[in-house]
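Put briefly, the fold is written as integer tokens. The lines below illustrate.
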Amino acid sequence: MGTNSKTTHAAYAIGPSAAAEHESPGEDAEIALSVVEGFVHGGVDFEDQYAMFVEAVHEAQEEIAKIAGDPSAFEDALHTQCELFLNGLTQDELKELAAAQGFKHPALVGFSETDGNPLVHWLDPSYPDDAGTKQTIQSIAINRFIALHAGETVGGKTLAQWQLADASLIAKPSLSVPPGFTAWTPTAAEVQAAQEAITSAADAVEAAKTNGSWADPDLVSTLIAAENKLATADNPALDDLASIRSAAKQQVDQAFTDITPHELSAAIQAAKDLDQIAPFQVKVLNSHQALKLLRASTEKQERLDLQHLAIERAATKATFEADIAKLHNALDHGGLPNLADPGGVSSMAKFLDHTHQAGVAYTDMSSWKPVEPTLAHNETLQIAQTEIGPWADQQELKDLRAFVVSAGIITADQAAAAPKSICKTLLVQQAYGASSSVASLKHSLQEKIALKNSTKSLPSKVGKSAKAPIVEAPRSAFGRQHAEMLSALKQAKAALAALPKPAEPAAVAAWDFGAGKPAHLGGTHPKTLHTGPDGKTWLAKGESTPRGGAVVEAEAATSRALKRAGLPVVPVFATKINGKPASVQPMLVGATEMSSEPSTWSQTDVDDIVRLHVASWALGNHDPHAGNVLRTGQGGLVPIDHGQSFKFYGQDKLSMSFRPNNTTAVYHQAYDAFKAGKLAKDVRINPAAAHSVIKHLESVPDSEWRGMLQSAAYAGAAQKQMKWVPAMRARAAKHHGIAETAVTTKQIAETFLDYAVERKGSLRKDFTEFFLGELKLENAAALQHAGKT
């Protein structure tokens, strides 16, 4: 997949020569990377030399693997060079190259002009061929191919229109009957009878679910059996059979937008009897995943992915059970050892490692929601709370500090700043596998160290016997700026590294997220957690008061705009769940809410907050309070929850006094603390921090900005209850010289977009005036001319 396995070319020899055998692996990796970079800048012919490029990348990976230290910088550089090479190809070249590597129907992905072509990732040899993201890209193309042959449109075009661009789409999908199912040759009458059986069974399931109740398991089993009958029918003499099968698959998909373990019980038992599903698979796969294995219509690659996932999960479950057995064995033979006893550190390290591995596994397994669950409770949590906590209370602080360092949980410097309570909490959270909590505690310790270092004092000698006063160590402006720059770069990298990989909006909109489970995360809008088709956990948000999807579109548009403004942001997509509008976004793993105390914020934090203020004002979002800004495990800041964007458009003011929500936005907190002298020592409000976001947004063409916000504008304009609609109606009436009652929905939407463009264009002027007028920052005058020549 994506590595030109079908073509043979001469490979570059990039290993070190005999004369260079003394060089370190790091030097060899740099040499290997320079070879890869040569393809990027060397005008490589994409057809003839892609195989050599792939070979160079793989040899570079071999050299990187030899590095004893942290190889992440080399890996990042390699990914970057691969993206540069592939992004240098035209869209037609990417599709031609992907087809040559075995990608099916490359024309059916990558037609979004703003999100890039996913074939770049599929062809990228620095990522494994079996990466789930690569398989998802291929599945999207195949599913769209099937949909076209079922009479649907893709990207607004019919099958006939697509065939003009790609002749390979003329071929009909081939029938692939999975193991456990049997193909048969039907007559036209038998095909019609099979169609009628599916419709009848689907209607029965739909009727049973009408009032929100479960469908009888026998009804569900009947529908699955009816579809499987048609899905395994194959007769070359019937020209439209492939299209009929595809249409039936779409019909059954709609009937099973949500499914419960109880409803699947009869179908699963029947499938077990026919060896269509293995008993262990239903112990590790959820209802939607198991359903796909029960259906013969499930695409081959998707079926294989699920089977591999089940095997991986079964191995995780077996390892978890083995670790639990080791934990109980240790507790049954004398309990936990004292660190001061001979061998105590080694024994406790093994115990902690087994507990941590079991905790990580349990956290993973708790998201599976299998059809037939076998885990009744979290034993690792019980052990962490009932054993490790009291044990830590009995240990000496110096021994605990040494132990958490030897266990690799924190550094020696961090341990020196940690009291006993923190050491204990770190061990309990490490045992439970709560990586985000451990990361948060580490970050707090690091901030404590940084604050201590920033206020260190040095004695000034005034004579041999004189008592010198304690004076603050001088810090040069250059030194401070250099330190702040490094901190900003590190924090930005930490935020970007934590973000989920991008997905194609059209693909997400087509995904079935199922019913989900309630997510108790606060806020006004109902939230649920779902396991997406990519296997990741996704957060879905509905509308607390129905607004026809206007709030959903606003949040999705905001995430696109924030990304365009250069801010790290979790992608948000507009879709429907159970027929109702909802926004969905992949969960940010290992992140916690940022501190709500401005005195704990670093200069880099405050600069990030200023940048967030600029983007929030451009989008009319006055809700970025501390709970809506997450700190990643490595310390980066990522804003979330943009459902209130545009809410006060046309009525709001860029002012310290405009605070429409019950909670205070982080930027107002920062400005309040600055004026009261309550920011940390040497931390200040820096107007220059706003420049990067202003510059990013100034570079966005007005037409692109309008297109980015168009869905939010038109969805909102159609809802009279949206708070921004009256203001935009009044502006539209004034602009067109008509009564407000005569203003059309289109005029309201277009006025909204005009206003958004105006606000984007005046950011530099508005924030210069804000910093000068409201915060009395004289250096803000330079912002008006920053970046200009």
